[in-house]
Amino acid sequence: MxxxxxxxxxxxxxxxxxxxxRLHITMITDDRSTNGIWRSGMLRLAMxxxxxxxxxxxxxxxxxxxxxxxxxxxxxLGPLHVKLHIAVAPDGTLGGTLDSSDQGAMGIPCADIRxxxxxxxxxxxxxxxxWKGSIENQGATLSGAWTQGTSMPLTFHRDxxxxxxxxxxxxxxWLGTLQARSQALRIQITVTSDSAGQExxxxxxxDQGAFGLACSKVEYSGKQFSFVALAVRGRWTGExxxxxxxxxxxWTHDVPLPLNFARQEKRWSPPPVTYxxxxxxxxxxxxxxxxxxxxxxxxxxxxxxxxxSAGITIGIVRHGVRRVFAYGTAKSDSIYEIGSITxxxxxxxLAQMVAQRLVELNEPVRALLxxxxxxxxxxxxxxxxxxITQHSGLPPLPDNLAPSKPGNPYADxxxxxxxxxxxxxxxxxxxxxxxxxxxxxxxLLGQALANRAAMTYANLVAQEVTGPLGMKDTVxxxxxxxxxxxxxxHTSDHRVAQTWDLDALAxxxxxxxxxxxxxxxxxxNLHPEKFASRGASAASKTRSLPTSLAxxxxxxxxxxxxxRIAFAWIYNPATGNYWHNGETGGYSGFAFxxxxxxxxxxxxxxxxxxxxxxFADLVGQHIAQRLAGQPSVSLGN
Length: 637
What we know:
By secondary structure, this protein is an alpha+beta fold. Helix 3 runs parallel beside helix 6 and helix 3 crosses helix 12. It is globular, with a radius of gyration of 24 Å.
């Protein structure tokens, strides 16, 4: 995931929808993300903020001398805007980072930056990508290609913004707190102006690990200031105080919320990412020993320290050998909310119902809703396939979501509320919508499939997936015995969090599970053919599973930055991993499987994301790299 991964994208949206993939800091995995869904995938996202240009270090003409390349360069990889930052150390070595502002992924470390005359190259180890090209136009253009599984043209042009000699009154670093349902999110903006008087800004969501979200339509006149954050479809408007030390106004994303900023002396930035040296690919039987050593800093004073009450359960399978183990307050059979990993179950339910000829992929979702809910549009309309591949054009959440219990934000959003939203919005599909992560879209799909099957979403998943697979601990509603094994969830500041209950949007994040059950699910994804041998004597739901599992892996659409999406699963061609992550108010998780190399893992944690992103995603990335025999991101980060 070039960056904390991609998928899902738009980390700031987690302020209203924490169970979607975060972007990852490397592509294994929103995502999401990136957490996975670049970032952390998602996957969680880092970007940034200075628009000042560093001089190129040589004034001689290109024909006479190739300039030393340094400074900021901007480019586009398909629809994604990418920024490259190159600096020269005192010893002459080159260093740099890469940002993908559309995905909220910033500060991805570059390595092995080499300039040989007019040739420049670098790698981005965390996403298994490389760039190579030529230096042109006296160092103003870097023309080349990005390779990450496949090769795509990527040309950079020098960022020519010239900073103002005297900052305006609104220039500077600002910090505020956005009370978004159950979360208090620290929002940081950095505002600068150029010599022509044009203002620029970038936005960071510190508690979601999302940094450098690019602003547009930045306007400052008199005391009035406003900007739009396109990546998260939000807008801030307000005014500068009389003493120039406060910005007071409103953030609007679906609904308006107060958001006031205070001027800061320093900008908070994420800590640098470090890596452990590569070692031989680790097998399942040895992973606990390796992880116990790698997790030692986190267990002593980090994300799993005793005072955090945090626990994490990990499941690994490789070549049929399974292991489940736990750290902190967790047990091997602890039950967790899996958040947006639920979406992959919704995808498999869709595949099952297609195999059983109960629905068709290109069938309009309108046909699965009660008569009269929404009118048939004149042109193209949203299909079931559009919903599961996140190409429906629907927003991340409906605009009539107004929870009465902020700690359990989706519990009182029912089918009638969803239908009212659709009646107003309609189901028209304008043009060819790009990848846009939508809890609303997959939640709608879950409700529509339940309608067609004439049962609840929870019962539908049990009938089509968890029942045939024997996953007895994977449910939306816990039994009294299971309730006793539900590990208490925690907020990012280690307070006990409420569990989440989802009704109309259940298909987007309602499931609870254990690591052992999730390994069964991942093994089924690794080896769909194992179910074929059960033959005609097996129940019809089981007989269709091999076909359904295979269909759910078919890559259907673009997910940005070289990623592809199947039935909710995000696929990274550079690693061969299918992945998804999830987050609720008190839990986080990450799951991936690699059919080519026959391994999979799931990480479940009883803590939601912190200001440094998702620890579950970080562990997932680390395990994927250990399984592949690559340098692994340090769990002490």
